[in-house]
Specification:
About 35% of the residues lie in helices and about 15% in strands. It is an alpha/beta fold and about 300 residues long. The structure holds zinc ion (ZN).
Length: about 300
Protein backbone atom coordinates (compact mmCIF):
# COMPACT_ATOMS: atom_id res chain seq x y z
CA UNK A 1 0.00 0.00 0.00
CA UNK A 2 2.72 2.42 1.01
CA UNK A 3 4.73 1.30 -1.94
CA UNK A 4 1.79 1.92 -4.23
CA UNK A 5 1.36 5.43 -2.87
CA UNK A 6 5.01 6.19 -3.39
CA UNK A 7 4.98 4.73 -6.87
CA UNK A 8 1.94 6.83 -7.71
CA UNK A 9 3.57 10.01 -6.49
CA UNK A 10 6.83 9.28 -8.21
CA UNK A 11 5.03 8.37 -11.42
CA UNK A 12 2.88 11.47 -11.35
CA UNK A 13 6.02 13.57 -10.99
CA UNK A 14 7.04 12.15 -14.35
CA UNK A 15 3.65 12.20 -16.00
CA UNK A 16 2.52 15.73 -15.22
CA UNK A 17 5.12 17.58 -17.28
CA UNK A 18 4.52 15.21 -20.20
CA UNK A 19 0.85 16.11 -20.33
CA UNK A 20 1.73 19.76 -19.91
CA UNK A 21 3.48 19.38 -23.25
CA UNK A 22 6.87 20.35 -21.89
CA UNK A 23 8.66 17.10 -21.46
CA UNK A 24 10.55 14.75 -23.66
CA UNK A 25 12.92 17.32 -25.02
CA UNK A 26 15.73 17.07 -22.52
CA UNK A 27 17.63 13.80 -22.71
CA UNK A 28 19.79 14.93 -19.84
CA UNK A 29 16.96 15.35 -17.35
CA UNK A 30 17.87 12.97 -14.53
CA UNK A 31 15.34 10.35 -13.56
CA UNK A 32 16.53 10.57 -9.97
CA UNK A 33 15.11 14.07 -9.77
CA UNK A 34 11.64 12.56 -9.76
CA UNK A 35 12.65 9.85 -7.34
CA UNK A 36 13.81 12.37 -4.77
CA UNK A 37 10.79 14.63 -5.11
CA UNK A 38 8.09 13.11 -2.88
CA UNK A 39 9.95 14.07 0.27
CA UNK A 40 6.63 14.66 2.05
CA UNK A 41 6.11 10.92 2.19
CA UNK A 42 9.46 10.29 3.83
CA UNK A 43 8.04 10.29 7.35
CA UNK A 44 5.44 7.71 6.39
CA UNK A 45 7.36 5.44 4.14
CA UNK A 46 11.07 5.90 4.71
CA UNK A 47 11.54 2.52 6.33
CA UNK A 48 9.45 0.54 3.88
CA UNK A 49 10.32 2.07 0.52
CA UNK A 50 13.53 1.10 -1.19
CA UNK A 51 15.30 3.71 -3.27
CA UNK A 52 14.02 2.22 -6.49
CA UNK A 53 13.28 3.86 -9.79
CA UNK A 54 9.66 4.85 -10.40
CA UNK A 55 7.73 1.99 -11.91
CA UNK A 56 4.49 1.70 -13.80
CA UNK A 57 2.31 -1.11 -12.54
CA UNK A 58 -0.12 -2.97 -14.76
CA UNK A 59 -3.23 -0.90 -15.26
CA UNK A 60 -1.47 2.42 -14.84
CA UNK A 61 -0.82 4.76 -17.72
CA UNK A 62 2.66 4.25 -19.12
CA UNK A 63 5.01 7.23 -19.21
CA UNK A 64 6.66 6.16 -22.47
CA UNK A 65 4.62 4.81 -25.37
CA UNK A 66 6.41 3.25 -28.34
CA UNK A 67 4.51 3.07 -31.64
CA UNK A 68 6.03 0.53 -34.05
CA UNK A 69 5.23 1.58 -37.61
CA UNK A 70 6.01 -0.22 -40.88
CA UNK A 71 5.80 1.63 -44.18
CA UNK A 72 5.00 0.71 -47.78
CA UNK A 73 3.04 -2.54 -47.45
CA UNK A 74 6.17 -4.56 -48.10
CA UNK A 75 5.56 -8.28 -48.52
CA UNK A 76 7.82 -8.93 -45.50
CA UNK A 77 5.30 -7.23 -43.25
CA UNK A 78 3.10 -10.33 -43.07
CA UNK A 79 6.01 -12.00 -41.25
CA UNK A 80 6.79 -8.82 -39.28
CA UNK A 81 3.21 -8.70 -37.99
CA UNK A 82 3.48 -12.30 -36.77
CA UNK A 83 6.78 -11.45 -35.09
CA UNK A 84 5.09 -8.64 -33.16
CA UNK A 85 2.24 -10.96 -32.22
CA UNK A 86 4.72 -13.52 -30.89
CA UNK A 87 5.79 -10.88 -28.36
CA UNK A 88 2.23 -9.78 -27.61
CA UNK A 89 2.72 -6.48 -29.45
CA UNK A 90 0.73 -4.70 -32.14
CA UNK A 91 1.95 -2.21 -34.72
CA UNK A 92 0.80 0.17 -37.43
CA UNK A 93 1.22 -0.78 -41.10
CA UNK A 94 1.08 2.06 -43.63
CA UNK A 95 0.10 0.73 -47.05
CA UNK A 96 -0.30 2.23 -50.53
CA UNK A 97 -3.71 1.08 -51.72
CA UNK A 98 -2.70 1.23 -55.41
CA UNK A 99 0.33 -1.01 -54.91
CA UNK A 100 -1.31 -3.85 -52.99
CA UNK A 101 -1.01 -7.16 -54.80
CA UNK A 102 1.86 -5.98 -57.02
CA UNK A 103 5.25 -7.78 -56.90
CA UNK A 104 6.98 -7.43 -53.53
CA UNK A 105 3.91 -5.97 -51.82
CA UNK A 106 1.26 -7.35 -49.52
CA UNK A 107 -1.94 -8.63 -51.08
CA UNK A 108 -5.29 -7.23 -49.97
CA UNK A 109 -5.98 -10.52 -48.25
CA UNK A 110 -2.73 -10.26 -46.27
CA UNK A 111 -3.56 -6.69 -45.23
CA UNK A 112 -6.97 -7.85 -44.03
CA UNK A 113 -5.32 -10.66 -42.02
CA UNK A 114 -2.89 -8.20 -40.40
CA UNK A 115 -5.80 -5.96 -39.40
CA UNK A 116 -7.77 -8.92 -38.09
CA UNK A 117 -4.84 -9.86 -35.84
CA UNK A 118 -5.25 -6.49 -34.08
CA UNK A 119 -2.76 -4.32 -35.89
CA UNK A 120 -3.59 -0.89 -37.29
CA UNK A 121 -3.63 -0.28 -41.04
CA UNK A 122 -2.99 3.32 -42.09
CA UNK A 123 -2.85 5.20 -45.38
CA UNK A 124 0.31 6.17 -47.29
CA UNK A 125 -1.09 7.63 -50.59
CA UNK A 126 -2.25 5.61 -53.61
CA UNK A 127 1.15 4.99 -55.22
CA UNK A 128 3.70 6.41 -52.79
CA UNK A 129 3.67 9.91 -54.23
CA UNK A 130 6.11 12.47 -52.85
CA UNK A 131 3.54 14.99 -51.69
CA UNK A 132 5.84 18.00 -51.71
CA UNK A 133 6.20 17.55 -55.51
CA UNK A 134 2.43 17.88 -55.99
CA UNK A 135 0.10 20.85 -55.97
CA UNK A 136 -2.49 21.04 -53.16
CA UNK A 137 -5.29 19.52 -55.26
CA UNK A 138 -3.12 16.58 -56.27
CA UNK A 139 -2.04 16.08 -52.67
CA UNK A 140 -5.63 15.90 -51.48
CA UNK A 141 -6.58 13.64 -54.41
CA UNK A 142 -4.06 10.91 -53.63
CA UNK A 143 -4.47 11.07 -49.84
CA UNK A 144 -8.27 10.95 -50.03
CA UNK A 145 -8.48 8.33 -52.83
CA UNK A 146 -6.13 6.05 -50.90
CA UNK A 147 -8.13 6.44 -47.71
CA UNK A 148 -11.44 5.84 -49.54
CA UNK A 149 -10.02 2.65 -51.09
CA UNK A 150 -8.85 1.34 -47.71
CA UNK A 151 -12.10 2.24 -45.97
CA UNK A 152 -13.93 0.55 -48.84
CA UNK A 153 -12.32 -2.78 -47.96
CA UNK A 154 -13.52 -2.47 -44.38
CA UNK A 155 -10.26 -1.21 -42.86
CA UNK A 156 -10.60 1.33 -40.04
CA UNK A 157 -7.94 3.78 -41.21
CA UNK A 158 -7.37 6.60 -38.74
CA UNK A 159 -3.74 7.63 -39.27
CA UNK A 160 -1.56 8.45 -42.24
CA UNK A 161 2.17 8.48 -43.03
CA UNK A 162 3.75 10.91 -45.53
CA UNK A 163 5.80 9.00 -48.15
CA UNK A 164 9.51 9.83 -47.64
CA UNK A 165 8.37 11.89 -44.64
CA UNK A 166 7.88 14.72 -47.17
CA UNK A 167 5.30 17.12 -45.78
CA UNK A 168 4.28 20.76 -46.11
CA UNK A 169 1.39 22.88 -44.86
CA UNK A 170 -1.04 21.88 -47.63
CA UNK A 171 -0.24 18.16 -47.21
CA UNK A 172 -0.97 18.46 -43.48
CA UNK A 173 -4.27 20.13 -44.28
CA UNK A 174 -5.13 17.45 -46.84
CA UNK A 175 -4.46 14.67 -44.32
CA UNK A 176 -6.88 16.39 -41.94
CA UNK A 177 -9.49 17.07 -44.64
CA UNK A 178 -9.35 13.47 -45.88
CA UNK A 179 -10.49 12.36 -42.44
CA UNK A 180 -7.28 11.27 -40.74
CA UNK A 181 -6.94 11.97 -37.03
CA UNK A 182 -3.14 12.09 -37.11
CA UNK A 183 -0.20 11.77 -39.48
CA UNK A 184 3.41 10.65 -39.11
CA UNK A 185 6.45 12.08 -40.83
CA UNK A 186 10.08 10.87 -40.69
CA UNK A 187 12.78 12.49 -38.58
CA UNK A 188 12.80 15.27 -35.99
CA UNK A 189 13.77 13.06 -33.01
CA UNK A 190 17.43 12.57 -32.14
CA UNK A 191 19.10 9.39 -33.40
CA UNK A 192 22.13 9.67 -31.13
CA UNK A 193 22.72 10.81 -27.55
CA UNK A 194 22.89 14.59 -27.42
CA UNK A 195 22.28 17.48 -25.06
CA UNK A 196 18.91 19.23 -24.96
CA UNK A 197 17.62 17.56 -28.09
CA UNK A 198 14.25 16.00 -28.75
CA UNK A 199 14.15 12.37 -27.59
CA UNK A 200 10.39 11.79 -27.96
CA UNK A 201 7.16 13.51 -28.87
CA UNK A 202 5.13 14.76 -25.91
CA UNK A 203 2.52 12.20 -24.87
CA UNK A 204 0.06 14.40 -26.75
CA UNK A 205 2.02 15.67 -29.75
CA UNK A 206 1.68 19.38 -30.38
CA UNK A 207 1.61 18.83 -34.15
CA UNK A 208 -0.60 15.79 -34.51
CA UNK A 209 -0.41 15.99 -38.33
CA UNK A 210 3.38 15.91 -38.27
CA UNK A 211 4.33 13.33 -35.66
CA UNK A 212 8.08 12.81 -35.62
CA UNK A 213 10.40 9.77 -35.47
CA UNK A 214 14.14 9.21 -35.03
CA UNK A 215 14.62 9.03 -38.83
CA UNK A 216 13.94 5.67 -40.48
CA UNK A 217 15.43 2.51 -39.05
CA UNK A 218 18.29 1.57 -41.38
CA UNK A 219 19.98 -1.68 -42.23
CA UNK A 220 22.99 -0.57 -40.18
CA UNK A 221 20.89 -0.21 -37.00
CA UNK A 222 22.04 -2.44 -34.16
CA UNK A 223 20.02 -3.76 -31.27
CA UNK A 224 21.78 -1.17 -29.08
CA UNK A 225 20.68 1.62 -31.44
CA UNK A 226 17.03 0.56 -31.17
CA UNK A 227 17.19 0.18 -27.40
CA UNK A 228 18.90 3.58 -27.20
CA UNK A 229 15.88 5.35 -28.72
CA UNK A 230 13.64 3.89 -26.02
CA UNK A 231 16.03 4.41 -23.13
CA UNK A 232 16.62 8.06 -24.05
CA UNK A 233 12.86 8.64 -24.23
CA UNK A 234 12.40 7.01 -20.81
CA UNK A 235 15.23 9.01 -19.27
CA UNK A 236 13.96 12.20 -20.89
CA UNK A 237 10.67 11.91 -18.99
CA UNK A 238 8.71 9.71 -21.38
CA UNK A 239 6.25 10.68 -24.09
CA UNK A 240 5.47 9.13 -27.47
CA UNK A 241 8.23 7.44 -29.46
CA UNK A 242 7.15 6.35 -32.95
CA UNK A 243 9.69 4.18 -34.80
CA UNK A 244 9.56 3.91 -38.60
CA UNK A 245 10.57 0.60 -40.18
CA UNK A 246 10.52 -0.44 -43.84
CA UNK A 247 11.53 -3.90 -45.08
CA UNK A 248 12.20 -6.71 -42.62
CA UNK A 249 14.46 -9.53 -43.80
CA UNK A 250 16.93 -12.12 -42.60
CA UNK A 251 20.15 -10.57 -43.86
CA UNK A 252 19.14 -7.02 -44.58
CA UNK A 253 17.68 -5.98 -47.90
CA UNK A 254 18.61 -2.42 -48.65
CA UNK A 255 19.33 0.76 -46.75
CA UNK A 256 15.83 1.02 -45.33
CA UNK A 257 15.49 -2.42 -43.81
CA UNK A 258 15.97 -4.13 -40.49
CA UNK A 259 17.31 -7.61 -39.93
CA UNK A 260 14.71 -10.04 -38.64
CA UNK A 261 16.90 -11.20 -35.74
CA UNK A 262 17.61 -7.62 -34.64
CA UNK A 263 13.91 -6.78 -34.70
CA UNK A 264 13.05 -10.01 -32.87
CA UNK A 265 15.53 -9.31 -30.06
CA UNK A 266 14.41 -5.69 -29.83
CA UNK A 267 10.76 -6.71 -29.54
CA UNK A 268 11.62 -9.29 -26.89
CA UNK A 269 13.37 -6.59 -24.84
CA UNK A 270 10.67 -3.99 -25.49
CA UNK A 271 7.84 -6.31 -24.45
CA UNK A 272 9.38 -6.55 -20.97
CA UNK A 273 9.83 -2.81 -20.54
CA UNK A 274 6.61 -2.30 -18.60
CA UNK A 275 8.43 -2.01 -15.30
CA UNK A 276 10.22 1.01 -16.75
CA UNK A 277 6.87 2.61 -17.51
CA UNK A 278 7.06 1.77 -21.22
CA UNK A 279 4.29 0.29 -23.33
CA UNK A 280 3.69 -0.36 -27.03
CA UNK A 281 0.56 0.94 -28.74
CA UNK A 282 -0.58 1.51 -32.31
CA UNK A 283 -0.31 5.13 -33.38
CA UNK A 284 -4.07 5.27 -33.91
CA UNK A 285 -4.68 4.12 -30.35
CA UNK A 286 -2.29 6.76 -29.02
CA UNK A 287 -3.77 9.64 -30.98
CA UNK A 288 -7.32 8.34 -30.63
CA UNK A 289 -10.51 9.62 -32.21
CA UNK A 290 -13.24 7.81 -34.11
CA UNK A 291 -12.96 6.55 -37.68
CA UNK A 292 -14.17 9.53 -39.68
CA UNK A 293 -15.73 9.11 -43.14
CA UNK A 294 -13.68 10.19 -46.15
CA UNK A 295 -15.10 13.18 -48.02
CA UNK A 296 -16.95 12.22 -51.19
CA UNK A 297 -15.35 15.07 -53.10
CA UNK A 298 -11.71 16.06 -53.02
CA UNK A 299 -11.47 18.94 -50.51
CA UNK A 300 -11.00 22.21 -52.30
CA UNK A 301 -11.02 20.42 -55.68
ZN1 LIG B 1 6.89 4.93 -47.71
Amino acid sequence: MRRTLWATLALSALVVPVFAGQAAHAASRPAVQAASRPAVTAGIAAAAVPAAKPTAKPGKSPTTVVALTFDDGDRSHAMAARLLEKHGLRGTFYVNSGDLGTPGKLSRRQVAAIAKAGHEIGGHTVNHERLTDLDPEEQAATICADRRALLGTGLRVRTFAYPYGAVDATARQAARDCGYNAARTIGGIAQRPCRDCTVAEPARPERVYEIRTPGSVRESATLADLKGYVIRAEQGGGGLLPLAFHKVCARGCGTFSVRTDVLDRFLSWLAKRERHGTAVRTLGDVTGGRVRPAPAEVPGG
